[in-house]
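Hi R.,

Here's the input for the zinc ion complex you asked about:
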Amino acid sequence: MLSLLSSLLCVTLLGLRAGAFPIDDFSVTSQKFLSSAVPDGFSINLDEERLVQFSDDEPPVWMTEREKIRAKALGRKFFDITDTPLSKLAPAPLAASRAYPKLNKQDLVHPVLANLTVDGMITNLQKFTSFRTRYYRSDTGKASQQWLVQRIGEITEEYASTSLAALITVTEFTHPWGQNSIILRIKGASEEATAENGTVLIGAHQDSANMIPFLPAPGADDDGSGSVTILEAYRGLLASNYTPVQDVEFHWYSAEEGGLLGSQAVASAYAQRSVNIHSMVQLDMTAWVKKGTREEIGIVIDYVDADLTAFMRTLIDAYCSIPSVDTKCGYACSDHASWSKAGYRSAFAIESTFDNSDKNIHSTNDRLDISPEFDFNHMLEFSKLSVGYIIETAGWAK
Ligand code: BES
Ligand code: ZN
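And here is the predicted structure with zinc ion in place:
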């Protein structure tokens, strides 16, 4: 009874986006799932106190994990800052404002784009969505992460020349909750250029989550799509024997759905180690083209770096066959926000405007076979964008 009351109270207090989902359904179902025992295969303490920040204007608040899960289901976005409080954020080492030059590597980029296909993305995403959930505190979320590490290794073995393979390292960035973030690095040919201009970074989140975390979450669009999109960009670069001038890193974050936990841990560790990052671009949801709408690439314009974002538009004009459209995502909406908060330049490309985006996320229906609106050719446009971004910013050592 008490927990039903607190559930109703929560709905009243946090129901800022009433209509975003059927509140009655959630309070009843969540009551059932969040007040009974945690099922096997999950390691969550629903009573654990977490420190959660909902905006830059209000102080962070302590709440239980259970309340945090409810807040998210009610459409609230937040950083869970329990493990990475602002006081632990060192200032990021940024060079003075960097103007983005006109694109000048078209001759190098276009042949790589011609190598990119949907084939690998289809098989990779079929496997990735076959885990019951990729929830960051679940056994299957750990297994999906291990599979992704293994798949990266297979792609490296199959497509990298011996000299290129010697420049590549895959590291697990360990988190206390089980599923680790993955960091794939291609060492650049010039240490001086990396020190001066920074590492070029692209990322996506590997975890998925049902609104009620114990239920299945195939996470095909959110963010299986972004995860395999950057993997295809990596494969295409290797197949073209690409060696960057500056270091390039691909990141697959854990625990985005828990409040940007993985990306905050990585970004704050980089800032503490004074790692110079040229720019961070992230892809979260790249598959959906809503029926009856024009196919576009959404460019998020809030909580991002304006110059990098403008540069993204020029990359889309040059390397994609569809136009860009500006959109907003709100506070703490995805992993780019962790890098912005740590003081780095970040940008975010997404499948469409926020309004036209996939409404199946965080449910059992976030499947790749749910509708023809789930479109691998749309994802391919984001692989092209990724390749253009990497070659234009990290250079090509010939
Ligand atoms: N991919 C979503 C963000 C999103 C949702 C973008 C809808 C565009 C349209 C992301 O994985 C997510 O779910 N973010 C959370 C916030 C997070 C900090 C808990 C959200 O939006 O609820
Ligand atoms: Zn999500």
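One thing worth noting: The domain at 94-394 is CATH 3.40.630.10 (Aminopeptidase).

Cheers,
M.
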